Amino acid sequence: MDTARPTRLPPLVPFASFDNADAAVDQLIALYQRNTTFIREAFREYIAGNLVVGQRVRACYPAIRIRINTYPEIDSRLSYGHLVEPGVYMTTITRPTLFRDYLREQVRLLLRNHQVPVEIGESDLPIPLHFAFPEGEYAQGEYSEVPGHTLRDHFDVPDLVVTDDAIVNGTWRGRANQPRPLAPFTGPRIDYSLQRLQHYTSTSPAHFQNFVLFTNYQFYVDEFVKWAKESLAAGTGGYTELIEPGNHVVTRETVGQQAPDLAFTPQMPTYHLKRDSHTGITLINIGVGPSNAKTITDHVAVLRPSAWLMLGHCAGLRTTQRLGDYVLAHGYVRQDHVLDDDLPLWVPVPPLAEVQVALEDAVAEVAGLSGWELKKIMRTGTVATIDNRNWELRDQQEPVLRLSQSRAIALDMESATIAANGFRFRVPYGTLLCVSDKPLHGELKLPGMASAFYRTQVNQHLHIGIRALERLRDMPSERLHSRKLRSFIETAFK
């Protein structure tokens, strides 16, 4: 006898038109909360043993949809917030409360640029059980092994078939009569990364700020925490609190207190110096290597940061460079081998003028130099990124010849990866490195040399990065988000 039962669903909420961004986002929030609550309540029934065999439970992501019937005339200076040709466009939405400010801006721009309403309703893409829980709660319990009575028999679980980067990679191929993408990431892709961010950084995605510094040395973390606490104590910069791994909150009143010990050290310790509207600074110690660099930027990207910068150390390749000199990357040799399938090597990763100027001005300001004098401590040029930390031990002829042909002036293991992923994900990027050794010229990074270098240089380097982000923060967002990041067929959402 067929014991299959119809899938239990919440009442369908059809798409409705909205010409107000706040109202549209409020409807997304209401739909998401209703549908995730529906799934969680069914899961409690399952744990209590009250779901019958064969009963499936499902609720779907809310969605934004817009229909464009004309070829719009858009201000050519705008890089996002509009569509290029007629059609139906849609994206699924998750965690709309977390993304409230971002969604408001994107919907407001659509309404302004196209003069047609957006439509808010339910998609047909199921919310996986594991993504339906708020932070700190998980789908845990004793699960039945009775046939027809396991998790997968009752609930949707994460599906990697619909969790990919086809949209941002430009490889998305839709079916006939299927809406085209409205945003660079789908709901499941975002949910996946939010879970990963919590895992790798031991901090909540809600704490991430729009301006991000990546580094690969603990020395930078120590200096950042020291400066952040001093800023909080002095009440400068508009910063409100510092979030440390384990979601430990430091305020102006608690800067002198010791953070509690963590149960485990996160793979990529992360610190968030918060400011209103997420305009503060997040610092992530990504460790060493291009794999880490790709992993963390894959996930930070779904938060749609305003900019990210790499501050790290590099091998200087020119005899005229000195330890402690700076390298402002304006091009990259990509030998990291972690992004070749997503962003082919023939794709150039261009410098972004707004970021380059902010970094150069920050070096001049913090170092107190300008013009010809600034060139004594900083060079602009190509940075080579490789995946072999001990490249010096290879037969020197091949790698040295390649570096010479590329005109590279510095070599590291993360910068090109972070810049390439910034380009791929449409996040403004930049790199400022500090020369810590010159292996081609006999100056190796030995313990004594490294200690002296770190003492004298880390402080200045970090503050240059902070000042550059503050300069970028002061720019209008439409100016910072360079048109170089956009293709000729793009999603409307940034």
What does this entry look like structurally?
This protein is of the alpha/beta class and 494 residues long. It has two domains: 16-185, AMP nucleoside phosphorylase, N-terminal domain (amp nucleosidase, domain 1); 202-485, Nucleoside phosphorylase domain (Rossmann fold). 33% of the residues lie in helices and 20% in strands. It has a five-stranded mixed beta sheet with strand order 1-4-2-3-5. It has a five-stranded mixed beta barrel with strand order 11-14-13-12-15, surrounded by four helices. Helix 8 (353-367) crosses helix 12. The radius of gyration is 25 Å and the shape is globular.
List the helices and strands and how they pair.
Layout: E1 16-18, H1 21-47, E2 60-68, E3 87-92, H2 100-114, E4 118-126, H3 151-154, H4 166-169, E5 180-181, H5 187-201, E6 211-215, H6 218-234, E7 239-244, E8 248-250, E9 270-275, E10 281-285, H7 290-300, E11 307-316, E12 326-335, H8 353-367, H9 371-374, E13 378-386, H10 397-406, E14 408-412, H11 415-425, E15 429-437, H12 447-473, H13 477-480
